[in-house]
Design brief:
Strand order of the largest sheet: 8-7-13-14-15-12-16
Distance between the termini: 33 Å
CATH superfamily of one domain: NAD(P)-binding Rossmann-like Domain
CATH architecture of one domain: 3-Layer(aba) Sandwich
Number of strands: 17
Helix content: 25-40%
Bound molecules: flavin-adenine dinucleotide
Largest sheet: 7 strands, mixed
Shape: globular
CATH class of one domain: Alpha Beta
Number of helices: 11
Strand content: 15-25%
Radius of gyration: 22 Å
Length: 374
Amino acid sequence: MIKADFVIVGSGLTGSTIARILTDHGQDVVILDRKDHIAGNVFDYKHESGAMIHKYGPHYFRCGSEKIWNFVNRFSEFYNWSSVLMSKVNGEYLNWPVKESYIEQIAGKDWNLFQGEPKNFEEACLAKMPRQLYELFIKGYTEKQWGVKCTELDKELATRITINKSNVNTLTPNHKWNALPRNGYTEMVSNMISDIKVELGFDYLENREEVIANKLLIFTGPVDEFFGHKYGKLKYRGQKRKVEHLPDTEEYQPYIQVNYNSADDPRIRTIEWKHLMHEDDKKNVKGTLLTHETPFTPESPHQYEYPFPDKINKSLYEQYKQEAESLQNVLICGRLGEYRYYDMDQAIGRAMNFASDILEKNGITTTNQTETIV
Ligand SMILES: Cc1cc2nc3c(=O)[nH]c(=O)nc-3n(C[C@H](O)[C@H](O)[C@H](O)COP(=O)(O)OP(=O)(O)OC[C@H]3O[C@@H](n4cnc5c(N)ncnc54)[C@H](O)[C@@H]3O)c2cc1C
């Protein structure tokens, strides 16, 4: 029997952050995870080549909130690192997001925007950029990413597409902190939960009767799976990843991430891990290590990555959400629980808010914890 006041299913950033804050306030917490490792989707490890690799795709940390920044700095040192992403278009590396100066270069000064209320992703894009730009950078990439026509995707997806109005090349120049944990995310999460009991290789849904949460069960897995898919299965996209070690090549591409926009190339992007590493560690890598990513629609929840942005899945999720909210003593949250893409800082910030609510509802006085763990 596994018994605690607070049972947290999932050791990703959401579960681990809530676990940390409840433990800081003297609460009895246990974490369960069905994977054989902690840290969920941000799990990383040292490859035999010497390169640090993120198993579930590259994770670039950025943050604008001092509260979140101070929180993560309790568990790891960080080094400054800003991501520069490129799209390979007609053999040339071009900035992604597209630089404002480049728009004029390809579309001139005189171009028209889509008029009226956009009904889908394509129209929402054409309401903010010239058609030439949309076709060169976005259409092929997006249709490859989601496996459907852009006109079938929700217009809200276009809110994530930005134009780079600054002169710098970085992906997120407006965030105050662009940085990476010195020894990786797994070590950071390990420090976060070092004094908390964790059961790995334990699937909560297959062993519900063995678990007792006296006060609250916090579930950060897929919400439809929690309810036995009773209304249907929520759709996700994922990436097939091919890891390639080139022992005799110093550099494969000049950037961490190169996107392939053309429909002719099945890859969507290639990551060269060296570019992500601290200068002191880079020199210890033998050759170079790459991951080539190709989108697909996964069946296994271990491969769920991006919630599918269309109306059918949106309304299906609403059904699960209503049912989840009606449950007593269960909180379903996180990227899989809320069927929503959250950047890491957003996931941590949201988890901090959930933890504060839990403490308040249980009459526990909150304190500002600043104890440094590392
Ligand atoms: C491809 C990709 C790239 C990303 N890149 C970035 C980036 O560059 N920058 C950024 O800020 N954010 C990025 N993110 C977002 C980031 O991954 C999330 O914010 C973060 O992982 C959310 O953590 P979580 O704890 O909610 O979910 P997860 O990390 O998925 O954790 C959920 C955990 O629950 C466990 N679990 C599920 N069901 C069960 C069960 N039944 N029993 C036991 N355990 C269970 C899982 O095994 C998992 O460990 C990216 C996301 C993806 C998909």
